Amino acid sequence: MIEIDGTVGGGQLLRTALSLSAVTETPFRMTNVRGSRPNPGLKPQHVTAVDIVATICAADVAGARLDSSTLTFRPGTVRFDPMAVDIGTAGSITLLFDTVLPIAMAADEPFRMTAGGGTDVKWAPTVAYFRRVKLPLLTRCGLDADGDCTKTGFYPAGGGEAILRTTPGALSPLEIERRGELDRVEIRSKAATELADRMVAERQAERARKRLADAGCAPEIRRVEYVSTRSLGSSLLLSAVYDRSLAGFDSVGERGRTSEEVADDAFRRFEEFHAGGAPVDEYMADQVMTVLALVGGTVRIPTVTAHVRTNLAVIEKFGSDMSLTRRDDGTILLEASPHPAVRT
């Protein structure tokens, strides 16, 4: 059984371990789960992720309860049935999808899951980012998946709903080494219906458009919408479309933060990324590692964050030969061979 110390990592270590455990049929025990966080242990979204993966692979589990600091997970055989889950809080739906997606893409049967919780919340990709950036990038390794956001859920009430669907297909190594020239930056802005009189969604989109235009980019406002939600909130996604890659920069509104500040935050992160040479953004670098560990390939990322380094340590425990190589331009090559447990 693999032993993992979760002291220096957050929920990503747990999600990575769950995904790889199910696909490789390797049991693990994690101690000090989220040990360095102000609120350590398993939270509702983490317990939900454990329960979902345990159901998918008929796992024998110990410690899957709120605030638990130790989890033992012994996977069985993967089998899919349509699933519907509710995190019960504004916990991120996309992080739940990130956990099951590597399992679904490695399987020989279709998968469908409806999840309730937060769709546009801090510290996690929005559903728009998941749909418009992550899933399109992963088509390069043969992923056939799509997602829908049927209800938007902001913090603190949540109440959102999204659907993930995958279809089995032939997988191949993931190759994302160059991004090419910038073609355009797509703008998608959303806010709760109650904020329409303040034109929050329009202000976010227009501020982003102006900042991008002033920077000499090619902004395109693709969607400005108001949605019924349980909590007031807003979100913005900038999708940078390059000749050979995609990158995303989302930002979430909250009390005390103006629409213009939301747009400025997303634009600042795009501007920093665009000045470099990597084809994927910093947050995608962390998210794509589990997929790369399974299908193999090469992905060039902006930098080695603490998340990347701790995630790499877990991935290596499950038999991946993933390596990091620093290039002359400061970017990093992530390279891995296909995992023996995955058919490519």
From TrEMBL:
ATP binds at D98, Y283, M284, A285, D286, Q287. Keywords: ATP-binding, Cytoplasm, Ligase, Nucleotide-binding. Gene3D superfamilies: RNA 3'-terminal phosphate cyclase domain, RNA 3'-terminal phosphate cyclase, insert domain. It comes from the Archaea. One of its GO terms (biological process) is RNA processing. It is found in: Cytoplasm. Residues 8-319 form the RNA 3'-terminal phosphate cyclase domain. It is an enzyme of class 6 (ligase). InterPro entries: RNA3'-term_phos_cycl_insert, RNA3'_phos_cyclase_dom, RNA3'_phos_cyclase_dom_sf, RNA3'_term_phos_cyc, RNA3'_term_phos_cyc_type_1, RNA3'P_cycl/enolpyr_Trfase_a/b, RPTC_insert. Residues 178-273 form the RNA 3'-terminal phosphate cyclase insert domain. Its EC number is 6.5.1.4. GO terms for molecular function: ATP binding; RNA-3'-phosphate cyclase activity. One of its GO terms (cellular component) is cytoplasm. The active site is at H307. Belongs to the RNA 3'-terminal cyclase family. Type 1 subfamily. NCBIfam families: PRK04204.1-2 (NF003246), RNA_3prim_cycl (TIGR03399). Catalyzes the conversion of 3'-phosphate to a 2',3'-cyclic phosphodiester at the end of RNA. The mechanism of action of the enzyme occurs in 3 steps: (A) adenylation of the enzyme by ATP; (B) transfer of adenylate to an RNA-N3'P to produce RNA-N3'PP5'A; (C) and attack of the adjacent 2'-hydroxyl on the 3'-phosphorus in the diester linkage to produce the cyclic end product. The biological role of this enzyme is unknown but it is likely to function in some aspects of cellular RNA processing. This is RNA 3'-terminal phosphate cyclase. The gene is rtcA.
